[in-house]
Amino acid sequence: MFAFAAAALLAGALAADRTLVDFEDPARDAVFTSAAAPAAAVTDERASQGRRCLRMAFEQHAPGKGEWPGVTFKPADAGAPGDWSGYAFLLLDVATGNADASEIGVSISGGADGKQNWYTYAPVPPGGWTTLRFPLTDLAATLDLTRIASIYLLMRRPPEPTVLFVDNLRLATWDLTDPAVLDVALVSPSFHGAYFHSHPEDQVAVRIAPQAPPAEFAGTLLRLTVLRPDGTEVGRVEAAPGQQPLLAVPKPALRDGDRLTARFALLRDGQPLQQREFAITQHPPARDEVLLRDDGVTLVNGEPFFPLGIYQAPVSQFGYLKQLGFNTVQTYSPADTAYLKAAQEAGLRVITQVQGTHAKAPYYHEPEWSDEEVAAYVRSIMDSPALLAYYLYDEPTPGRTPPEKLNRLCDLPRGIDPYHLAAGCNNGDQLTYRGVADAMMVDCYPAPGRFTDLVARTVAGRAAQVPNRALWFIPQSFPWEPYCRARNGNGPGGLVFEDGRLPTYRELRTMPWLTIALGAKGLCYYSFQVQGFWIREAYPAFWRGYEHHLAELTALFPWLLEHEPDRPVACDAPPVYVSARQRGDDLFIVAANSSDQPQKAVLTVPGLAGRQLTVVSEARHVTPVGERVELAFEPFETHLLTTAPQGLESLPAVTSVEAEVARLQAEQDAAYPSLCTFQQGARLEASWGFPDANQALWSVWYRVIDGWPNTPWRVGEGFRTEAVPEWGKKDFTSAGRWLEVRLPEPREINTVTVIASPWATVEVRLWVDGAWRTVPGEVVPDAVPRHHDMPS
């Protein structure tokens, strides 16, 4: 539901130019009062200004309760303006009645229909009042600031009973001593603040992006000074804000190991209003250098590289994955030298999990490693020709972990091995962790459903990556069913399970192209296997479409390594996202419909007049009118257009691929009918006490599938339970345990297949004529292991 961004604690004084809500007017108390979750009311118990504030009392979260309890109010009802344009920051004062730190969420909606949304979380330290500041430039990326519709103050799954106080919501203007008025980034050297031999650069440069209106900078001057360690100045350049986006001086002659300092300052009347420094190092050459270009494209030994990876790839399948077009594999455990050697021999790069110290955070994988153990592991593999990146944190969203903690985690391998990338997977909080990882891997699994979250997370991920950082996306290539979640409904305990499925071919194709249009510079699919089954064996019809999709993607690889044109492509349909790549005079254009509704769009492509476009994988051409191209889109449809179709003619049409997938699926359904699934009304009972319906929501790994690995069957409807307080310590191995599957009506069955771990001894019995009858059968070991190279 949410992706979360960062809020900065207020540093220095800012002018509070406009009060939004001060909670001092008793006539408006009802706007904020709630007897539900949380219990909320205006109180004179404490205040940061005046006499009163809002008090919110949250209960501890429990399964089945709302995950984001909070208080919502409209600015108009609170007597506050709905037009926030012209201001720099939203400020609010917060405090907690708890002895420990808490966390508050702020969600703001707006737009003509009130459906635009921005959200963030921020820590609330114990003790007195804390002022939080939210730059309105962050909000403006997703909200129309002239139409603020509502403000939602919340907690996320409160971990304990918590009381939060909020006071003095206000808008503030710019202060030139505040670093937020200028976005300043070192862009040359372009990676890790260092020069590398495989990617020569000839200047020291910073990019300056003013965040305040130009009038705020009247009478100021920007200055970049480059110094040697002894303070000797080797270059200086000055410019007025807005005069040029880069300040650059020539790179002085450097030997390996030499250091420089780049000092940026904003001045008025010769006095610095603010100043920043960047440390620069000249690294000696390495045998293997993996860097990032200034636009986020990966460079491997100086050559552009588009990571096309897949999670959970077993060594035995490296050759096959390389044949499909993959160039990268990702591990969920630290890759050892044998794994890296096998990847090298197959021509694959590796993103390897690194175990990190994480205190109570649930997203680093056990066991925990000390800094010394991490350092030892990095040193043991850093010279492998197969290494691409260190995988340092995984979803779910890092949440409450302070950004400095993840920064330290990423800096640890970077300090030992600056020649490879530090990566992490994040399904939220992108703006909180701005620039933490070299490659932020954003995931969102939208099928079934809309692509709204996919767009929001990708846009936030792109905004969170400072220059010379990469955004990689993790497309869904697995069935959603094993990861079912509950919705409110009429099922057990007031809950109902949503139906999941694999992406359609159209969705599978659009997910990566849509994220490429939004700025992704790499893809890493989830996943080769899921819940112990290879997807290509469990879902052969889907996998055939997947093969076609990968063939198209890899055929277009060369375009993805090119720079985007100076003049971008424009589109008049908001749900359709477009981007382009340019090679000489030729263009490649991605246009993807993120909506579940048909769309018509007009693309304006600078320099296209008089040229013809080929629509890739559609066996057709379009002729622009001047620089404009009209396109029609079905739901979730992507069109790929190019002025240089050479070598792409052999790609099959999308419609023929969809027909082939449908035919293969029909053949599989006929050959392997699935009868024992809850979708067909079958019910599951068990002797060892599966969790009750509510608990089953949080134990989705424990499930049964039908005899063919086709339709995962979630345990959770119509089953018997035992009261077992320690579910995680249950005994699955003792004799006499049983699962019972009951079909809704008698059916003819000629084969029952059970797939089990090798340590399990299994019998299959049928209820016939009032008694259980054992079915004779044979044990057939897997011809190919399906789960981490271990047979079942």
Characteristic terms for this protein:
disordered N terminus, 792 residues, single chain, disordered C terminus, eight-stranded parallel β-sheet, alpha+beta, 16% helix, 13 helices
In short:
This protein is of the alpha+beta class and 792 residues long.
Protein topology:
Elements: E1 8-9, E2 16-21, H1 29-32, E3 39-43, E4 53-58, E5 70-73, E6 89-96, E7 102-110, E8 116-124, E9 130-135, H2 136-140, E10 148-154, E11 162-172, E12 182-188, E13 194-195, E14 203-210, E15 220-227, E16 233-239, E17 246-250, E18 259-268, E19 271-282, E20 290-292, E21 298-300, E22 303-305, E23 308-311, H3 318-324, E24 328-330, H4 337-346, E25 349-353, H5 371-381, E26 387-391, H6 403-416, E27 421-426, E28 439-443, H7 452-464, E29 470-474, E30 486-488, E31 495-497, H8 505-517, E32 523-525, E33 529-530, E34 533-534, H9 535-538, H10 540-555, H11 557-560, E35 570-571, E36 576-583, E37 586-593, E38 599-604, E39 613-615, E40 620-622, E41 628-633, E42 638-642, H12 654-671, E43 683-686, H13 693-696, E44 703-705, E45 712-714, E46 739-742, E47 765-768, E48 771-774
Parallel strand pairs: 13-19, 23-24, 23-32, 24-25, 25-26, 26-27, 27-28, 28-29
Antiparallel strand pairs: 1-9, 2-11, 3-4, 4-11, 5-10, 6-9, 6-11, 7-8, 7-10, 12-14, 14-17, 15-16, 15-18, 18-19, 20-21, 21-22, 30-31, 33-34, 35-38, 36-37, 37-42, 38-41, 39-40, 39-42, 43-46, 44-45, 47-48
